Fold this protein.
Amino acid sequence: MSIITANRTTLDDNGLFPSNEVMLDLKSLKKVYPTPKGDYVVLEDLNLQIRKEEFVTIIGHSGCGKTTMLSMIAGLNDISGGNISVLGKHIKGPGPDRGVIFQSPSLMPWMTALQNVLLGVNQVFPDATKAQRNDIAKYYLQKVGLEDAFNKRASELSQGMQQRVGIARAFAIKPKVLLLDEPFGMLDSLTRGELQDILIEIWNKEKITAVMITHDVDEAIFLADRVVMMTSGPKAKIGDILNIDFERPRTRKSVLEHDDYYKYRKHLIDFLEH
Ligand SMILES: Nc1ncnc2c1ncn2[C@@H]1O[C@H](COP(=O)(O)OP(=O)(O)OP(=O)(O)O)[C@@H](O)[C@H]1O
């Protein structure tokens, strides 16, 4: 069986996805940072649509504005122009519909893994019973392989285990959109591979939309339905988008052995080198 599938969505006359398929819509997005030397326009006229249940990875040169874009989607960074909507509604700040996983999970070091996950769960599900909230937190900790570490303090956990807690914490609030800013950037390649598999498994089960920044071209291809390439700043925008048509579930072996893998890889590297 071929692992290449046809792109099932048809774009309208303006090159847009049908609105009922769209989860995230960035329209003419602009970001200006004031600096001592005057305004610095990081992003300008950036347009991007991301579909429901899609996994999109973002690549671009260091400093082009990837984190700026992601933090604006998260509602943690003001929008200077244009707008961002989730399911057709303009965002006005952070909200439980969007979960974020950063490179460093910034857990409360004195709290246990369970207590760290519960911090978010308690906020988002105030009407659930204590037992129900505990069940949600434990379910996701178990999903990331931490069933034996519920009561370990965050300060006692390795970096990889802390990031597992970060993943559990983000999924446990049941967001519509998961935003990931280089979540595996600080991990060794073995742990990185393990956490990519865990991430994809939960993402696939929960059917949420994921947007992930990465500097790793192989990671970008392995995880994504589409790889979005940003131009270099200032005034960065979307430079190109590559559809990754490998069937899911994917294994590293099947992806690496497929001829198209090298075609995709070359496309991304050519973009980054020019
Ligand atoms: N608060 C701020 N004030 C002024 N300039 C900023 C601010 N935050 C980011 N910048 C600048 O905006 C540009 C984009 O930064 P951003 O962190 O979004 O890039 P990035 O693509 O995520 O980089 P990297 O890949 O290195 O993480 C950079 O030139 C950065 O120095």
Summary: Residues 33, 35, 40, 42, 60, 62-68, 233 surround adenosine-5'-triphosphate (CB under 6 Å). The first strand starts at residue 22 and ends at 35. The longest helix spans residues 189-206. Residues 1-6 have pLDDT under 50 and may be disordered.
